[in-house]
Structure formats: structure tokens, C-alpha cells
Amino acid sequence: MALPINIEDLVNGQTVEWERIEFKRGWNPEEIIHTLCAFANDLNNWGGGYVIVGIEENQGKAILPPFGVNQSDLDDIQGEILRLAHQISPNYFPLVQPYVISNKHILVLWCPAGDNRPYTAPTTQGNKAQRQPYIRFGSRSIIAKDDNLRRLQELTARIPFDDRINGKAKLNDLDLGLIQAFLQEVKSDLYEESKKISFEDLCQRMLIAKGPEESVRPLNVGVLFFCRQPEKFLDRSWIELVIHHNKTGRNFTEKKFKGPLHSQLRAILEYEAV
User: Is-contact 227 260, C-beta < 8 A?
Assistant: First the structure.
């Protein structure tokens, strides 16, 4: 399954902060399960992160060209990922996709924030391993303790606004043209797949919709970016620009920028006051 991001930009840190990417030269299940758990817990609400197997790192940045993963090992590793996912409690399943860069195979694990935080993982792969909650600290995955553990526990009662289901909107309120334009702009392989799969499947793959099979609904993030009139479902979801022409505060110009959020931002940055 292609990811809604361009792999070259991801590897070079052009679309995602380095703290949200972990590079692994080879397959190391003990370290990787801790990172999966940490990204699932998403203590800082960054939106999770990515584990890239087959690329070495230097101070958190990729060393290119990739070291690579043997093509014959890809299926076995993906099976191991499924096994590790069942070791995390509650079970947590990253989205996995192989890619080829500079004729070398790599494996990308997309690890969005989980819906059932806090998550715990075994400290080792032994039979008597203890379970601990892991979080990201800079570019490392560490055990949550003291204040960080308290913050993580508080997340169980709080879902970030972006990740909440929008009860007013329906799936067909999202615009396929906007979604495909975005995927094409970021050069995602998912753009070509979007022409072949169902709209519901596409939205779920992009994590902009969720819910039971009989009632899949958009998330707020999907409404903000891929609805042509987000203000119909989210109050005052526009940008207001006020330009004061003198110090009295009485002579001013006001303009509203509406539409998808990224379109609003581009429009206001390009706006030239008369």
C-alpha cells in the first residue's frame, strides 16, 4: 500500500521533522518495537512518525545511498512486524510499504498516533520481559517516567482536535479532486492507486476518515484540508485578515480567506493589500 507522502522527500527530511523519523541499517526487532510503541503513544501530538529500515543514519540524518534490505528478506520482515504488533498492548499495527531507492530495497513503517493510548511494549524479546510505555525524546525512544508518564496517562482522556471524527460531515463531503491534487503535488505513489480503489478506502488509507464499516466519517483534519467549504462543518474555519490604515482603529480593511486550509494559507501569503 503506497503512503500519502513522497519517499524521496521523506528520506531527505524535507516533509517530516527529523525527530519523527528513525533510520535503521538493518532489522532489529527489539529496538523497532520500542520505536513503534513510542510513535503510537505520540506524547507531543506530532502525528506519529516513520521507521525506515535499510538506511543508516548519522546524528539522526540519512546516509545515502541506502545500505538496503535483501529483497528475499522483505516478506519475512513484514511477518515479523505483524508479530511485534501483537506484542504491543493494546495491539498496534503500523502501515508498511517497501520502496526502491538507488536500486536498493528499503522498508518504510508509517506509525500514526494510536487511538488507545497509552501503549506498552516488552523491554526485551525474552519470555520474562517487563512491559513499559515508550515515548520519543528527541530522536530516541525511551521509557516514560515521572512527569512524562503522567502526561502520557492524561492523553487517554484527550484526543487531539485533528483526530476527532466530525459528526456533522459525511464521507462524500470530502472532495476527491482536492485529495488527488494533493497526492499529485507531493508526488505520492498513492496518487496512481487513488484512481483504482474506492473513495472510502482512499480516505481510510490517508487516515482522514474512520469509524465502523457501516458509518465511516471524516476526521476534522480531512474536513479542514479536503472539503471545499469546511466552514459548513467547523465554525469559523477561515482566516480573517484585518489591515488598519491609521491608529484610530476606525479605518480598516477586513478580508476573509475561505476554502481548504492549505489554500487559505497560500492565498493570504500571496495577498497584496491595495
Answer: yes
